[in-house]
Amino acid sequence: FTSFIQIDLDxxxxxxxxxxxxxxxxxxxMGVVKANAYGHGVIPIARAVLEAGAARLAVxxxxxxxxxxxxxITAPVLVMGxxxxxxxxxxxxxxxxxxINTPEMAEALSVLAQKAGKSLSVQVKIDTGLSRYGVMPxxxxxxxxxxxxxxxxxxxxxxTHFATADEADKSLARRQLSIFAQTARQIERAGIAIPIKHAxxxxxTIDLPEAHLDCVRPGIMLYGLKPSAEVSDxxxxxxxxxx
Length: 243
Ligand SMILES: *Cc1c(COP(=O)(O)O)cnc(C)c1O
Prior knowledge:
Number of strands: 10
Shape: globular
Distance between the termini: 13 Å
Strand content: 15-25%
Structural class: alpha/beta
Bound molecules: pyridoxal-5'-phosphate
Oligomer: single chain
Radius of gyration: 18 Å
Largest sheet: 8 strands, parallel
C-alpha cells in the first residue's frame, strides 16, 4: 500500500470565496496560515488563499512570515504571536507586521525601521479574556500613544482573540467584544485613528456577525473544516485534505 495526502486547492479557493461572500465585500479576509497552514503546506495554500481574494495573511511567528516572503508572497502578513528581540530585524527586513506588546519592542522596531528607511506597519492585540499574548485593555492606549510617537512605525490595527467562541453560548465572546469596542473607542477619542479592527476567528466569522468589524481572521475554515460541531452550517465548506 501507499498512503498519500492530497490537498485540493480548488476547495481552498471555494472556501475563501464562501467566506468573502458571507462577510460581504466591505470586510477584508485575513487568512490564518500559521503552523504550516494547519499542516496543509503553507506556500501553495497561501497563494490559493490570496488568489481567491483574501487581502492579508496571518502567522504565529516571524520565521513563518519570512518563509512566505522567500516564496515571493508580497501581501501584508501579520505576525500574531511573540517575537524574540533578535527577530525584530527580520520583521523589518521582510516587511512583516509585528504585534507589539511592550514599549521596548516598539522602540527596538522603530530604531530598526528608521535605519532601513522604512515605515513598518504594526498592530496591537488586546487581551480581552483569553490570556494568551496581548496587552491588557487599560495598557492599550498608553502603548499605542507610545507607538504613534515613534518614527518609522505605522500603527495599522487593533485586534483581539476569543477565548470560547467555539461554544454555542456566545455570551463570553460578546463580553470580550464589548471590552474590545470600549477600548477602541477610548483610543479613537484620544485622537488616534485605527485603520483596521479585527476579532473574528472561524467560529465568529460564521456565527457572530457583529464581530466581523473591518476584517475577519479565519483559520480552520479555510481548510474546509467546521471549528466545532456547535457552529451553524451557514457557510458551505469543502474539506481540502483527503487521505
Ligand atoms: C489561530 C488563530 C486564528 C484562527 O482561528 P480558527 O479557529 O482556526 O479560525 C485567529 N486569530 C488568532 C489570534 C489565532 O491565533
